[in-house]
Amino acid sequence: MEISKPIKENTYAIYGLGLSGKSVHKFLKKRKVKTIYTWDDKNNSQNKKKLNFFHNALNRVDYIVVSPGINIKATRFKTILYKNRKKIITDLDLFYMQNLSVKSIVVTGTNGKSTTCQLMQHVLRSNKIDAQLGGNIGKPVLDLKIKKKSIVIIEASSFQLFYTKFIKPTFAVILNISKDHLDWHGTIQNYKNSKFNIFSKQDNQDYALLNNQELIKLFRKKKFLSKLKKIQGNTLEKYIKNKYLLSKPNLENVSFVYELSNIFKIKKKIILKAFNTFKGLPHRNEIFYHKRGATFVNDSKATSFEAAQHALKNNKNIFWIVGGLPKLGDKFNLKSVRKNIIKSYIIGKHINYFKKQIEKSIKYKISFNLKEALEDIFQDLQLYKKIKATVLLSPASASYDQFNNFVERGNQFKKLTLKYAKKF
């Protein structure tokens, strides 16, 4: 699919009016697009007249802009959307339709996207390069204020990449791929294919950055045109004093950022200084509180067991809060981390699932929610006064059964910790 007309000459239907959908609407209005139809399941679900009007509009428009989290197979419009799937784009496509010449770094992967994007921005800005960050992190990409020499860093989800038609990064990065979002994509192969759309429009002036041999073989098999940069094992550990970056997954992120920085010809001294002054992101192995020998860690972003493993491997004497909405196909292998865990506290609406995953390996208590989990933990800490304990929220699951998102879950954990710590 090629861009045939200027943005303002096309007609559009916007499906989903969350943060990105509203951003798309504002973007199109600003460019004086005359025909825009909108629909949001939450706001319009009972209005049959509007529903039929939007349904019919999907056949007539040039493009259907779908919000990232919407799975067309699971909506009331699935038949007509599938029929018109070649028209479906995202806000990322509109960004590239408008900014064909902009230099961009697009980062995707199962884990580590946000840290890598923010670390890259920090390095570029340390070298006085205007680096704008958006996409699946922070601002919607269409809200970014871009200058002529800006470098745009975009965090892209598998949902966005699944629909994309026009995305063309100067630098495309896949950090890693493991089982995730299988309830949405169906199979691991579909998930991989959506990630690999990141390379589909690149030419031989662009770069593809990969570090996994299986992914490198798949890249070559698909015969993409971009220059392949293979990321080698990290050799910078001895120069890094920032504890946040010294975990295994973050050292992997550092390797990608270091290679990108070299392509931008940034001096090693500046890169290392930026690494050592980088502040970690909230909700990602975030050490936020100490009390009488106990360290409290907010790792709410860990929405699968693989993501939770990193915190479980890098901490000792753990009182582990686990539970939420399980990821389809996720399995817990606690063999390498159970020695680090004193006890776990199961929360959420899927108690039996998590009980089956951990009951043969570690001690556990059913706490149902964060409030009860922290009450239980503070009681148990009285029995372990002589050890340096770690109280860890690393749920290994999505948050939607009890919270709107992982941010709300992490903030609630921090708020309750400070409340109960006063009694400790």
Detailed description of the structure:
- The chain is α/β, with parallel strands linked by helices and 424 residues long.
- It is built from 16 helices and 16 strands.
- The chain folds into three domains: 8-89, NAD(P)-binding Rossmann-like Domain (Rossmann fold, 3-Layer(aba) Sandwich), CATH 3.40.50.720; 99-277, Mur-like, catalytic domain (UDP-N-acetylmuramoyl-L-alanine:D-glutamate ligase, 3-Layer(aba) Sandwich), CATH 3.40.1190; 286-421, Alpha-Beta Complex (Protein-Tyrosine Phosphatase, Chain A).
- The longest helix is centred in the middle third of the chain and has 16 residues, at 248-263.
- It starts with 11 loop residues before the first strand and ends with a helix.
- The model has no long low-confidence stretch (mean pLDDT 92).
CATH superfamily of the largest domain: Mur-like, catalytic domain
Task: Give the overall pLDDT as a whole number.
Answer: 92
Lateral arrangement of strands in the main beta sheet: 6-7-5-8-9-10
Biggest sheet overview: 6 strands, parallel
Highest CATH level, the class of the largest domain: Alpha Beta
Question: Quick summary of this structure?
Answer:
The protein has 424 residues and is of the alpha/beta class.
Entry keywords:
UDP-N-acetylmuramoyl-L-alanine:D-glutamate ligase; 16 strands; 3 domains; 424 residues; Rossmann fold; 16 helices; globular; alpha/beta; 37% helix; 6-stranded parallel sheet; Protein-Tyrosine Phosphatase, Chain A
